From TrEMBL:
PROSITE patterns to which the protein is assigned, alphabetical: LRR
Name of the gene: Lrrc51
Keywords of the record: Cytoplasm, Leucine-rich repeat, Repeat
Family annotation (InterPro entries): Leu-rich_rpt (IPR001611), LRR_dom_sf (IPR032675)
Protein name: Leucine-rich repeat-containing protein 51
Amino acid sequence: MSNPDYMNTWVQEPPLDYSFRSIHVIQDLVSEEPRTGLRPLKHSKSGKSMTQSLWLNNNVLNDLKDFSQVVSQLLEHPENLAWIDLSFNDLTSIDPVLTTFFNLSVLYLHGNSIHRLMEVSKLAVLPRLRSLTLHGNPIEEEKGYRQYVLCNLPRITTFDFSGVTKADRTTAEVWKRMNIRPKKAQIKQDAL
């Protein structure tokens, strides 16, 4: 169960920072020393980090195998994880494990190798997701990229480090009406 006082202080806690560590597999985090910042990380009595931010950017990860188990080993409150930075890795898809962190509000996936735009829809189950980055992935080249993301993730307020405006939402809605067929029509057409 989440501790509300803990949730209120997360912004003040420095991240658990494993950026630029040449990490190939998530399991390596257990033996790797995180980077030290200006402020020391707070730890629980069990030795786990009290942060809600995990930075894994600029590594060579191509999957998130064992992510939940490793995060549970590193963080005192893994259920409160609010910020995950996986930018500049070699991920080719959005692993469903990311959708299990319901307090996730910031997710950086820019500079990876995600090539299927439909991957984005997996993130729709995250109720608190407000900031997402995907630029620098092959999906960015697909027609309607921004509109597709905004249609599937209507709660985000920042996308690719740019604020989402009312005009963006309107454009996304128009794009949706023009490009996404209703399920009934799709079934009928597929049957022909």
